[in-house]
Amino acid sequence: MNIEQLTALRILLDAIAVSTPNADVAHQATEIARFIATTPYAWRRASLAGHLTASAWVVDRTRSHAALIHHRKLNRWLQPGGHIEDSDLSWRAAAQREVTEETGVLRFLTQANDASLFDVDVHPIPARPNEPAHVHYDLRFLFIADADATLDRALAINADEAYDCQWFALADLANDPSLDASLRRMIELSMREHLIKDLDEK
User: Fold this and answer.
1) Rounded to the nearest 5 degrees, what angle is found at the Cα of 190, between the Cα atoms of 124 and 24?
2) Best label site of 1, 51, 179, 188, fewest CB within 10 Å?
3) Does residue 39 contact residue 47 with C-beta atoms inside 8 Å?
4) Domains and CATH numbers, the chain
């Protein structure tokens, strides 16, 4: 990662804030853009008050199921994701690395150079014994796995990161009131895109 990529990201976030019809997403994008503007090397964990992270909304090739991990530290079902490394070639590459580390999925139908953001979110992370409370400015990318969750439900569990890792039907997730608002936002967006895809193919 480098400063030029950070500048390009801020420009993209400013554009999203202006163009999205979702007021919540616009607010989140504006917050992240402001953070980037005032924080050199905003992706590095050395920025203790907060830093950029990259996560992935992973659906199977039918776009009817999403892969979630039962996060060990936060004890919640979440999308795969995590911290960005200096060696990551792009924000999306960071998210893809996290997907592979946390789910074992290696092959995707989405383009590796697709820089478009699926969602963004700003959320607090509670303090832990070796780390103060801080904020994650999360960049979220859509990944279509080269897998059919209804035929092959096997995902690899990274025991260091998660208690479990599973495919979930989007229809079931949409009716789960326990999920946080940002996760529900991605579920709804994914289901809308799935519906549009089906209509286009008819």
Assistant:
1) 40
2) 188
3) yes
4) 48-201 (3.90.79.10)
**CA distance linking residue 159 with residue 163, whole number of Å:** 6
How far apart, in whole angstroms, are the C-alpha atoms of residue 133 and residue 73?
13
Q: Are 123 and 138 in contact (CB under 8 A)?
A: yes
One digit per residue, the tens of pLDDT, for the chain of length 202 reads 999 999 999 999 999 999 999 999 999 999 999 999 999 999 999 998 999 999 999 999 999 999 999 988 888 899 999 999 999 999 999 999 999 999 999 899 987 778 899 999 999 999 988 889 999 999 999 999 998 877 777 788 888 888 999 999 999 999 998 888 899 999 999 888 765 454 445 4
Alpha helices in the chain (DSSP H): 3-19, 23-38, 91-103, 170-174, 181-201
